[in-house]
């Protein structure tokens, strides 16, 4: 059987699995994927590989007793075996008071994240794309270390109430670090697409090469509060702590940034500058995502922060039931609205500031304020009178994205970025922030 | 091949300190399946020989085969309820070859002779394809075949054989005691791993190993809803290369610290620690916010382990030094030119840091690494001087050595093995000294316990570390708890400010169960031993902020 099933094939297979079920309720999740990668360093291929994966996961329940089992073989005997296993586990399991039953059939909006260009990548195409990059870096005597990874896959689910969902997609991520021979300059680029045809490894490489050369001979500035322009790659790793933290339950329990003194949550409160709007939308043409979440809930355009106000927190089906509200599934993507300024214009309008192109090793310091620490990396530059003056040594920062989004000066034109912490893709604008806190210097290049 | 499933810890209530998720490799299976015996070594030898023969016939000049059965059991609970129990099994074979001087790797879960043969052919084909863009052929340090050998973690109680109910009862007791003692919330977890690994190579090695690891942990949170304030305290257990006996809580393995604090050596009392945690989380709610400035730090082994990991363990990985990790984890300040001077002062004279994969009860300890090299101990920093790195067969020649250090690892049969950190530990002080005596000598200082927030730059110069518990020391006495503490330093400056190390009676290991490296990312588990250590004049910052 093929690894990537069509919607009809997936439906037939799921129906067959469910036909073996003797439980009160049954839910089956199915996935198939093929991944390939090419890794290189010191201008040489280091490791590369391919991975094929298929998996069927069955959740059976008797009342509030639930069992899950999975298997990677799809013959009839294996399918029946995995259903029986999940039932045995359910019978043995203690009651789960938080178990809510499977969902009724749902309607899902259409979203397209599957591109034949990516699905048909071969090892040769991967090598060609990397060769274009290597040619540029080695020509200039620079050391390149990069990673190209592509994936095609599908997920599907069906339950005993007849709910059926299917989504097929492709992705390609390319990242590259270019270092000067003497180790005093370093530049980075990362690009993520669903459509491999959009990936131009040569153009991306030029960005990393430029940053690597321009970051040579960095000067030290005193740590302190500076106006910064965060390129979207740098902004992504700070904003993720907001994206990942918007859970209603922990806010209700009083142990989240979104909790408020007196036992309430910040839902409906203005927490950041009114130009800040985040939303998720599975149909976004530049960042398509599945229109359903893992338990079958439909995903549609959802505002999370609207003009600075917390519009939604995510509610699991259990927590929503307990609180008497509508469930809100965790988002499958995240988009931040921006402005009209280009990065150049943002630099031009800056009297004195710092251009931050990438941030690294982000860790939460205080969950109460979302205070984060981390460092700049691979190209940090001093701006004076609207021009990049010179490269500067890397800084450690201690800053909360909430404080940062209250100190907002300008938002630029949003673009798709890859988080260097989570590898997830977002659409985010570059942003100019005043009084961003750098706490110490680093000699790292 | 099996995918890597990830359990989102945020939804399990486990703190952000762990990162976003933990990997589960394999099929979810009933617990009984974890008790099925390992595949017989004779059968695995036959399977391995298929790959070795096919590879040779296709032109490979070197081949290694790893047949692995990886078992995991993870339990997640919060307050009065079990959130999830994952029993997972992953079985398959990974084949690595050198052909035309280039590495090739392929892996399959089809362990039939045909499946293995086909997979071997793929590995050779990949090597040959990649050799076209390779300019320097791989040079392997020689390794004599060791014949047919076995090695097993010396466990007393196989954690997989302990009934699940007993584990649930323990976690419910932990949660109950924490709640009784003032916790608003508690999540607790048990992680058990068993790697049944068979390694064979064209050098003539057939190595059968049975490796066990355990990690009990929890997070206790105290909440003041009216004030809108919360504070957490994580367990001060350590992940270990042990069986379920680690949870016996033996009195003989406890070390009495100041202020009623308890340190755990090779046996952990989870309930006792949960009770202390709840009390301490509550105490943190009213702890004094630290005044920034220079302090002498007294660092407990359960805290210092992570500082060693980040500031010594990673920078002395030779592949990082050479640039192989430049696009992700970064490179290293500990460059070869510094090492070549034989006089690079990594730290003060007191600082002796050793790498090993042999220390009992630790996560890194095995008989042989994933290249079939027998494991050993070697110095990284001697009397403060950088003397060596961590290197594997295809890189150790760069150091002028002709034997691998034996620290190659892959986290699954379907991942390619590469250089991973062995245990990296600070040797204890030679003179008799306990932590109480050490604190007596400190005029203005902070005593730090437990793993907190941590961040370090990509070349491992500048770092910032938090902790779980901070105690202010004034004129040789602990005067109370502090909050909002983090220290910032530079690796070389920090290790040169090391002035005193407690003796071997205070020595304990810290561990990292899911250390990440590589692209695609792989995990590994590693221990770091030390005794309580004093560092003078370290910069402390205040991490408290006001919003709104």
TrEMBL record, chain B:
It holds the Pfam family PmbA_TldD_3rd. The lineage of its organism: Bacteria, Pseudomonadati, Bacteroidota, Cytophagia, Cytophagales. Residues 160-251 form the Metalloprotease TldD/E central domain. Belongs to the peptidase U62 family. It comes from the Bacteria. Residues 64-127 form the Metalloprotease TldD/E N-terminal domain. This is TldD/PmbA family protein. SUPFAM superfamilies: Putative modulator of DNA gyrase, PmbA/TldD. It comes from Runella salmonicolor. Keywords: Hydrolase, Metalloprotease, Protease. Residues 292-525 form the Metalloprotease TldD/E C-terminal domain. InterPro entries: Metalloprtase-TldD/E_C, Metalloprtase-TldD/E_cen_dom, Metalloprtase-TldD/E_N, Peptidase_U62_metallo, TldD/PmbA_N, TldD/PmbA_sf.
